[in-house]
Write a structure and sequence with these properties.
The longest helix is centred in the last third of the chain and has 13 residues. 34% of the residues lie in helices and 16% in strands. It is an alpha/beta fold. Strands 1, 2, 3, 4, 5 and 6 form a six-stranded parallel sheet that branches. Bound molecules: ligand FNR.
């Protein structure tokens, strides 16, 4: 099983990229996480181009199509989804309804440096994915206080969160 991992941050040292990697290390056997690196290279969504998208967008759509499922690790910006990630989801949602997200299994996790672990952003990403036709897990994984949330080996320091991550990936 090929899972496309999408981190909603392009920042060096992103906690959400670390979270995605922790998820990759917790996958059941037979599943493989492939990290998508193209978020920062996508142009802004343009409906005039959706039927003949630019190469970086087409590459992204092909990656989603090849994947059996997608896993998104989102930061929260101003109580919402970071614009770059929303832009990527908007490209992936078109042309509607025969888009690459249609019927695609998807799950969302998230980390923030605040207390609440990007729960609002995770809820909004789930909403956008559902609106695009994906099959979205309702579970969330709120990794708060992300500066101290990871052990040196990259795993989640909190055993309860670590076990929730394993449960979510098992679903
Ligand atoms: C933030 N951050 C933040 N955190 C949060 O819990 N709720 C929020 O609404 C916001 N808003 C916000 C806006 C902007 C513009 C920035 C840059 C940051 C803090 C955020 O959680 C923190 O920067 C994370 O480390 C971002 O994720 P990555 O880049 O580490 O993956």
């Amino acid at each position: 099983m090929r899972i496309l991992g999408i981190a909603g941050s392009v920042r060096r040292g992103s906690h959400n990229r670390r979270l995605l990697r922790a998820a990759g290390d917790s996958l059941p056997s037979g599943a493989q996480l492939v990290e998508w690196e193209g978020l920062g290279g996508l142009p802004i969504f343009d409906e005039d181009m959706e039927l003949d998208p630019p190469v970086p967008v087409q590459d992204f759509l092909d990656e989603i199509e090849r994947a059996d499922a997608i896993l998104i690790a989102t930061p929260e910006y101003n109580a919402s989804v970071p614009g770059g990630l929303k832009n990527a989801l908007d490209w992936a949602s078109r042309p509607f309804p025969e888009n690459v997200l249609k019927d695609k299994p998807a799950a969302v996790i998230g980390a923030s440096t605040g207390l609440f672990g990007a729960v609002w952003a995770q809820a909004e990403v789930r909403k956008a994915l559902k609106a695009s036709g994906a099959h979205v897990l309702e579970n969330e994984l709120p990794v708060g206080l992300a500066d101290g949330a990871f052990d040196v080996d990259g795993s989640l320091a909190d055993p309860e969160l670590d076990s929730r991550l394993g449960d979510l990936l098992g679903d």
